[in-house]
Structure formats: structure tokens, C-alpha cells
Q: What sequence folds into this?
């Protein structure tokens, strides 16, 4: 029995959508892990938030001053800012200009 | 965070790969091997794949991110994590619900692991390719032999205890980093063997043929929903427990969400590619459940070249899939009870495994009891546990807080605000829908009554236990993290 183009197409799509994405995620996360290890071998601390995530965290802290978790969120934000200022190598894609513009909350 | 005395420094995964394999090892179980391929082929093939993939991304990936993140944020097992969110008092009993469901699940899953162990051992003895072998009498011979089943159940729980006693890194991690790749390699080799058989293309056509009209059938979406939610182990407390052992700078959403959901499902796809070409090449009707693995497939091995070796690959791989799941399901109770009591990890492992062994005796004795419990907990117990975990994140902790404080911290991918309504509204609504749907479908049956008892009694039992345990010595504390407003 010869397989139709539709069946072969679906087989290829399925393999790509599942195995392709899973393999991409595996390789990406293991490479990131390697990079984190490399950074932590050279310095004790590392940036913990991407620019987008840190901006959201800052916005939330400013908009929710009475939230019971605001101190914890502020601490995490400020810790990331300090680390970015004090270290040379960063995990996330931070430019010098972005780091200069960062402020504690 | 609430004060729970720490006995020792908390364990952590030794490597990123160890964490990822633990997630996959936990989530890939019997359902991936004996259910997924058949459900896929029987529900429109490619159409089912599209429905399944959609639900995987909409529900399972975000849900797993939330569960792993809660474990990582609190660094505690199920009960401790719930206490951190809802505060001391009876409401911590919602975590007990998750624990009870897990213990019940493992009590009947251990005999299933025992079946796979029995077949794996017989594959190594080349029983399936021996002259005069008959699959059906062989299977019923096992199921009807209560002493043998109880013995195998004992071996399974004893083996799980022996590994769990060694701890997270020296026990669980050391096993899964070999077992999961071994399962994948076994299925790949089996796939190559199957695809090179004459007539194998019929199996591919059955599984991957696209019947678009199935996308308009509610049954297709219900089947895809069940597969997307329960195959990925969302809301069972496993992802929470595994996540609680993450290290300081570890990512949650990429590994715990995307990789786990897609990787786990990929093994189901691989199982379909491994099994159906062989089944169709030999001209046997496919089946679902134990019938597929233990009858249909067992019949085909004598008829294909190198069948004895293919049988070893399949049944040893199948055993590894079920065994690693059992290991992590049991770890949920071990982690939280070791934290919550004065017992050492070794004592807790022995207590938990002994308790599960005892509760599993009826399922080991009778496959009918196992089927009943599987139906009750699969349709109502597991959705209830998932509702507890996702509900507490969505409605007490608040998804926005968890997203900012844990999901996106050290993350390999950025998770946007779209995630919040999925956790708060969509997943809880789906869980309620599943429970209501199956109650409606099985209205008045013994299974439905059992399911309703679970839904009503488990929360009451959990609340009562924790009210007594936590309430001693005065008024319950207020929550550490009172309700989110997002």
C-alpha cells in the first residue's frame, strides 16, 4: 500500500511539531544551562531577569505598593539590578544603555 | 513562608538533564504506549494530532509551567506549598486531596507496573517466540494468578522503595538519566524494524491518515483533552514536587513546560510509529489498553524476523516507562511527608511504600478492581487534584504574582500576560467540565458514585485532618500570600 502525500505530509508535520519542538527545547535549555554554569564559574552571581521580565516586575511593584508580596518582588528586582551593575557577564541580552537606565524601586 | 522545621538542607537535581529526564520519566507511562497510538488512529489520525497539539499548547504547557513554578517558588512538597499559599489551617487540606489521589493512583498503578515487569522478564526468556505460545491464555494466566500478581506487586513496591531511599540525586536522578533515553532508543529501534516490514504502510496510514471531519466531532476533542491533560500528568503534584528540587538559577517554563509536554507526547508519537506498522504488517486488528500491549503485540513477535529481540526492546522499554512513572508518583508523598513529619526520608519511604503496597493488594488481586479504580480516579480523582493545584495558584496565590516571581525568573523563554487567564479561568473550567462530563456520561453507575464520593469525601477528609493538625495551639494563621487580585 502506497502512502498518500497527505499521510506523508501529516507524518512530517507531526514529527516536526512534536520531536522538532521537543528537541529544540532540549538543546536550547541545555545550552542555556551550559552558559549559566560558565558565567557562575567566573562570577558568584548572575542576572535573574530578562529586560522584558524585569520591566514587568518593576511595573507590578509600582502598581501594587500594598500587595503582601511587594517586598519580595522589590527585593528580586533590586537584586537583579545590582547584579547587572556589578558584573561583566550577563545571561540575558542586556545592553550597556539598558543597564545604565535601570533604577532600584 | 510558614515555619516548618527543616531537618536537613534540601536536595537539588544534580544536573539540568536529570531534572528534564525526571519530568519525562514521570509523565511517560502506560498511557503513552498502549493508549495514545490507538486513540490517535481511532480519532481521525492527523485531525486528532491537530486537536491534541492545540490543547497541549493552550492547557498542558501553561499548566505545567504553573505547577513546576509553584514547587520551585515554595521549595516544598505538596502540603508545604499549599500551606505557604493558603496559610496554616484546614485549607491546607486541599493539598491532602492531591496526596490522597496520588496514593490511590499509585495503589493501582503498581500492579500495572507488575504486568510490564512480568512481560519484560518473559521477553528476556524469549517466551513470546517459543513454540506453542498463545498470547491471550498467557495474559489471563497472569491476571488470574493472584499469588503471582501480589508477588510482582511486592517486588515493584520493594524496588521503588530501594531506589527512593537513596534520595533524589543518588536514587531517582541516577535511574531516570539512563531509563528514559533507553526507552527512546528501544522505541526507535523497534520503529526501524516495523517500518521495514512488508505491509507496514497500512499502520502508518491508520495512525497518520487525516480525516478532517473528526475535528468537528466532540468525541475527538474530548479524547484529545483527556490525553493532553492526563498524559502530561498535569495537576498530580508530580511537577510541583520535581520543581521543588530545582536549583537557584534553573529555568521553569522552557524545561518544565514546553519540553516536558512536547517531549512526553513525542514518546506517544514514537510508540505509534513503533507499534502500528508491526501490528498492521502482521494483519492483526489494533486494540487499546492492555489488549494492545499484552495480546495484539505479543502475538506478532513470533511472526516477524528478530521478533524475540523486538519483544525485549518493547517490553523492557514499556517496563521502564511505567516504573519511572511509579517512582515519581510515589516521590510526591515521600517528599511532602518527609518534610511534614519527624520521620527520616528512609522511614518515610518505607511507610509510604508499605502503605501503597497494602492499598494495592485488591488491585493486584483483581483486575476488575483495578479497572474500577482507574476509571474513578482517571475521570474524577485526577481532575480534582489538578483543580486543587491550579485553583490555588489561580485564585489564591494569583497567576500574575507567580509569573513575575517564579515563572519568568531565570527563564529560558519569556511568558507573557496571556498566561494569567489560562491559569485562572481556562484550566479550572476545563477540569470542572471534565468531571461534569464524565458524571453525565456515567450517570448512576457504580463508577460515577465512586467518583462523586471522591469529589465530596477527599476534600472533607483533607480539611478535617489539617484542621486538627494545624489548628492545635490556637487560631489558624492568616495566609502568607492572601488572594491575588489579578
A:
Amino acid at each position: 500500500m502506497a502512502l498518500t502525500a497527505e499521510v506523508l505530509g501529516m507524518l512530517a508535520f507531526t514529527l516536526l511539531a512534536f520531536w522538532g519542538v521537543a528537541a529544540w527545547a532540549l538543546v536550547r535549555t541545555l545550552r542555556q544551562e551550559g552558559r549559566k554554569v560558565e558565567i557562575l564559574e567566573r562570577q558568584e552571581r548572575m542576572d535573574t531577569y530578562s529586560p522584558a521580565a524585569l520591566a514587568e516586575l518593576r511595573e507590578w511593584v509600582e502598581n501594587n505598593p500594598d500587595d503582601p508580596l511587594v517586598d519580595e518582588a522589590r527585593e528580586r528586582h533590586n537584586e537583579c539590578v545590582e547584579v547587572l551593575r556589578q558584573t561583566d557577564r550577563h545571561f540575558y541580552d542586556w545592553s550597556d544603555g539598558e543597564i545604565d537606565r535601570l533604577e532600584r524601586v | 513562608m510558614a515555619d516548618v522545621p527543616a531537618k536537613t538542607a534540601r536536595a537539588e537535581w544534580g544536573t539540568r538533564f536529570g531534572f528534564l529526564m525526571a519530568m519525562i520519566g514521570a509523565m511517560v507511562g502506560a498511557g503513552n504506549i498502549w493508549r495514545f497510538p490507538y486513540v490517535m488512529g481511532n480519532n481521525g489520525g492527523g485531525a486528532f494530532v491537530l486537536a491534541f497539539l492545540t490543547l497541549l499548547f493552550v492547557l498542558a504547557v501553561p499548566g505545567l509551567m504553573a505547577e513546576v513554578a509553584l514547587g520551585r517558588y515554595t521549595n516544598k512538597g505538596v502540603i508545604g506549598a499549599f500551606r505557604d499559599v493558603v496559610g496554616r489551617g484546614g485549607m491546607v487540606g486541599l493539598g491532602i486531596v492531591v496526596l490522597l489521589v496520588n496514593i490511590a493512583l499509585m495503589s493501582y498503578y503498581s500492579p500495572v507496573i507488575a504486568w510490564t515487569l512480568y512481560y519484560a522478564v518473559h521477553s528476556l526468556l524469549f517466551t513470546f517466540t517459543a513454540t506453542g505460545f498463545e498470547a491471550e491464555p498467557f495474559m489471563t494466566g497472569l491476571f488470574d494468578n493472584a499469588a503471582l500478581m501480589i508477588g510482582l506487586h511486592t517486588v515493584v513496591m520493594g524496588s521503588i522503595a530501594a531506589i527512593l531511599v537513596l534520595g533524589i540525586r543518588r536514587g531517582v536522578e541516577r535511574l531516570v538519566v539512563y531509563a528514559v533515553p533507553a526507552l527512546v532508543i528501544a522505541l526507535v529501534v523497534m520503529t526501524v524494524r516495523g517500518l521495514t516490514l512488508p505491509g507496514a504502510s497500512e499502520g502508518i496510514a491508520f495512525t497518520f491518515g487525516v480525516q478532517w471531519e473528526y475535528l468537528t466531532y466532540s468525541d475527538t476533542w474530548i479524547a484529545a483533552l483527556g490525553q493532553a491533560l492526563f498524559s502530561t500528568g498535569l495537576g498530580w503534584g508530580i511537577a510541583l514536587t520535581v520543581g521543588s528540587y530545582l536549583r537557584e538559577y534553573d529555568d521553569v517554563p522552557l524545561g518544565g513546560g514546553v519540553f516536558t509536554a512536547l517531549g512526553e507526547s513525542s514518546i506517544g508519537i514514537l510508540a505509534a510509529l513503533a507499534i502500528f506498522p508491526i501490528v498492521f504488517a502482521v494483519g492483526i486488528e489494533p486494540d487499546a489498553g492492555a489488549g494492545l500491549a499484552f495480546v495484539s503485540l505479543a502475538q506478532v513477535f513470533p511472526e516477524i524476523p528478530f521478533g524475540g529481540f523486538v519483544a525485549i526492546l518493547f517490553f523492557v522499554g514499556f517496563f521502564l516507562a511505567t516504573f519511572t512513572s511509579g517512582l515519581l508518583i510515589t516521590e510526591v508523598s515521600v517528599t511532602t511527608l518527609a518534610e511534614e513529619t519527624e520521620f527520616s526520608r528512609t522511614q518515610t519511604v518505607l511507610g509510604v511504600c508499605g502503605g501503597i503496597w497494602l492499598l494495592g493488594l485488591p488491585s493486584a488481586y483483581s483486575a476488575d478492581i483495578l479497572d474500577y479504580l482507574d476509571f474513578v480516579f482517571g475521570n474524577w480523582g485526577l481532575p480534582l487534584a489538578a483543580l486543587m493545584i491550579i485553583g490555588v495558584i489561580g485564585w489564591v496565590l494569583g497567576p500574575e504574582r507567580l509569573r513575575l516571581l517564579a515563572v519568568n525568573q531565570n527563564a529560558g523563554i519569556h511568558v507573557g500576560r496571556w498566561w494569567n487567564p489560562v491559569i485562572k479561568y481556562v484550566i479550572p473550567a476545563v477540569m470542572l467540565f471534565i468531571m461534569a462530563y464524565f458524571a453525565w456520561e456515567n450517570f448512576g453507575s457504580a463508577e460515577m458514585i465512586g467518583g462523586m464520593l471522591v469529589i465530596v469525601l477527599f476534600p472533607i477528609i483533607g480539611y478535617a485532618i489539617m484542621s486538627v493538625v494545624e489548628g492545635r495551639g490556637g487560631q489558624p494563621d492568616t495566609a502568607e500570600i492572601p488572594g491575588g487580585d489579578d
